Amino acid sequence: MATIFTGWQARKEKVRESVKRAADYGWIDSNRQHEILSKLDDDVLTIGVIGQMKSGKSTFLNAFVFEEDILPAAVTPMTAALSVITYGKEKKIVAELYSKEEWEEQLYQASRSLEDVIKEEERLKIQAAKELVAQANENGLNLNSLLGKTREDTFDNLIEYVGAKGKYVSITKSVTIYYPNENLKGVQLVDTPGFNDPIVSREERSKEFLKNADAVVVLLYAGMPFSSVDRSILFKHVRSCGIGKVIIGVNKYDIPVENGDLQSEMVEYISSQIRRACDECGDTRLASIMEDATPILFSAQMALLSEMPMRKIQETEEYDFAWNRCSRIFEISNSREFREKSQIDLLTAAVLNVIEKEKAEILLRKPINAILAVGANKLTDINRSISECRSKIAVYRIPDDDLTNRRDQTDRAARRIRRKIDNLSYEIEESFNQLERRFRREIEDLVSSECNRAKREVMDLSILKTSVDDILRYYENFVAVLVQRMLLRCVEDQLDKARHELSIPLDDFFNGINDVLQRYMPDMNQRDISEEAERKIRFSVDDIDSIPDTAEEEGEQVSIKDIIVAAVDGWLTGVTFGVYGMIRDICMVKEAKKEMCKILDNLVLEFPVDAFISTLTKKKQFIISQIADIYENQLLNPILKSFEEATNNLTNRQEQLEKFIQEEQNLLSQREILKRQFCEINELVK
Fold first, then answer.
1. Where are the alpha helices (DSSP H) in 521-559?
2. Cα torsion angle, 336, 338, 343, 345, sign
3. How far apart are CA 510 and CA 496, in angstroms?
4. Helix, coil or strand: residue 220
5. Which terminus of the chain is more exposed, N or C, with fewer CB under 10 A?
6. How far is residue 188's CA from residue 372's CA, in Å, rounded to a whole number?
7. Do 475 and 596 meet the contact criterion of CB atoms below 8 Å apart?
8. Which segments in the chain show pLDDT lower than 50?
9. DSSP 3-state of 246
10. Using the 8-state DSSP alphabet, how is residue 237 labeled?
């Protein structure tokens, strides 16, 4: 007797059938089919907590799950281990340690010299490996008895696996934390270290978890919201795994509030950036998911402070400074007010809503989104192949007596297009040169004016009411605001001007390209390729903030602003270390104030402006090379090659033409089959 399913169970069976059909159609292999169906059956909601360094993932999880300071912030790539948090009646941890093969790879990387390494990606990999190996040696670990093992331990020893100075952190790949929080029943939260992780095996572990995630909490940093790295995380990693729900949290919103920004303006700005990125991406599925992803502003640190005893806050200099700073910004004075102003409850409510009310729907949508993403990619590939095939057919259909003339005509078109590329490259070169000059002038003026203002404020500080430590805290806050807020705003303003300036020559270029194609190659079926090239180049220019850290188009994106902040932070770390040494040796507040003014004068003279210029040069070179590559290799060369082949094979032209016509018919048939399969799967799960 057949089983009759109703309600949710019936929909689950439809999803199961759709996954089976996707496998039958060859969209996914048997291993992927097994992964998807196993995930569907285990009824566990996996929520990935993702974001770049400084977004506050660990602080958020401390506030949301533990309500105390449990997970340390990852201060270096080496300490950023992947953590999985789930329900357990008793607190405990299970650590997955590196295998012997993975450790041998770290030993090899650690043995390499940094002298001849140019790529930043490789440098990070080597530096992280050197840190790992050095710490393992320092802790005297018996690696033979540990590598390749899964190690269970008490919750109290968690810091030994995830803390910067932990005994086992150098050989820990991931940690599963079992914790008696009722909200975690049927749920696992995954704190991913990031997707530019220099430890390859750990990065792959992160991607493996994200591939099986049902929902994600994407944390942005309020001082630099929705940067190019955030875009890469969302539109590359999240998009490719078929996520069913996205929640956007914007951490450390107290920083822009301190500088007078309105919360409504922050939310609208980030929302507009996400909408624009969705439009440019052209992925309607992801766009529909992101429609409900209204950014939620919050402060994980304020939420954490609201749960901590005042004694512990006052004993820790960092927490004491943060408490006093936020008390001043929001005019609050107790834990209840800190909790309210942290706005953490808005974010936790969104996460709990996913867990309590949307879990079943998300668990069903996740596998559907994953397989439809595969189908959409296959359809894109087939359409591209059809365009290429039709171009070949157009060439081979040209009569013999007209072939030489049409080839010459195409050669003229190619020369015109190359001249336009050269002219555009010159325009881009000039625009970036102007941008670099403006950058230097604007940044130098900004640093000079802000340092002068800071000097006046330092000198106005009351000698009776001010301590030397107060002066140091003022300096720390001044540097943080200058780098993380004002400097980045200045950079964004200049990048916006560059986008506008580049849009004019780009419009002229694309109009000119279309005129050439229409005049010289009207029947070459190049419009689709030309439109795709235009979309890619416009997106690259609009995304002027980012630089691919590899030559591949699908490589990781590195933000210009991130590079700038890292360069300035690195430089200021050395400066600040010297500041502490000079100021703390001074007992008199009056003398400390004078010394601080000298330090601020040195900031003006020595500020590392060149870090900005070098990143812009890389972006300029990338855009110029991208334009040349797209139009040469994807548009011109295939056509010119077809003419050459047709000219050299006059006797076999008809045979080749029939071959291409048959290839086109096969591709069209495949496309129709794929469209039908796509509709079947879509209709099955509506």
1. 527-542
2. negative
3. 21
4. strand
5. N
6. 25
7. yes
8. 1-6, 75-79, 195-198, 200-201, 549-556, 577
9. strand
10. I
Q: What is the pLDDT of residue 1?
A: 35
Q: Distance (Å, rounded) from C-alpha 58 to C-alpha 85?
A: 11
d(CA 350, CA 348): 5
Q: What is the DSSP letter of 609?
A: T
| Residue in this structure with the two tokens 């995380």, named with its chain if needed | 233
Side chain identity at residue 186, one-letter code: G
Amino acid identity, position 114: L
d(CA 333, CA 322): 12
Residues 6+ apart with CB under 8 A from 686: none
Q: Taking a C-beta distance cutoff of 8 angstroms, is the pair 242, 366 a contact?
A: yes
pTM for the full model? Answer: 0.59
Cβ–Cβ < 8 Å for 65, 184: yes
Among 236, 246, 241, which residue's Cα sits nearest to residue 277? 236
Tell me how far apart the alpha carbons of residues 457 and 596 are, in angstroms, rounded to a whole number. 11
For 84-153, the DSSP string reads EEEE-SS-EEEEEEPPHHHHHHHHHHHHS-STT---HHHHHHHHHHHHHHHHHHHHT--HHHHTT-EEEE
Q: Which residue is it, tokens 């004068």? A: 601
Give SS3 for 250. Answer: strand
The DSSP call for residue 49 is: E
User: What are phi and psi for residue 152, nearest 5 degrees?
Assistant: -90, 140
Distance CA 247, CA 230 (A): 13
Question: What is the Cα 396 distance to its own chain's centre?
Answer: 45
Of 559, 399, 391, nearest to 51 by C-alpha is 559
What pLDDT sits at residue 562?
A: 62
Alpha-carbon gap, residue 84 to 102, rounded angstroms: 21
Angle between helix axes 344-356 and 335-342 (nearest 10 degrees) is 60
All residues at 6 or more sequence positions from 477 whose CB lies less than 8 Å from its CB, including other chains:
325
DSSP 8-state code for residue 158: T
> Tokens 């590392």 identify what position?
608
Residue of 494, 482, 501 whose CA lies nearest to 442: 494
Measure the CA–CA gap between 569 and 480, rounded to whole angstroms: 9
- Tokens representing 341? 């102003």
Residue recorded with tokens 């977004």: 55
E strand or H helix that includes residue 172: strand 172-179
Spatial separation of the C-alpha atoms in residues 173 and 202, rounded to whole Å: 6
| Rounded Cα distance, 47 and 190, in Å | 6
pLDDT number for residue 231: 67
Per DSSP, helices labelled H in 630-652 are: 637-648
> Can you give the pLDDT at residue 6?
45
Cα dihedral: 23, 28, 33, 36 (round 10): -130
Contact 249, 298 (CB under 8 A): yes
What is the Cα–Cα distance from 232 to 554, expressed in whole angstroms? 9
Residue pair 152/48 in contact (Cβ under 8 Å)? The answer is no
- Residue 155 is given by DSSP the state G
CA atoms of 407 and 316, how far apart (whole Å): 76
With residue 326 as reference, give the H or E element that holds it: helix 317-330
Amino acid at 258: E
Nearest residue to 43 via CA among 8, 14, 89, 84: 8
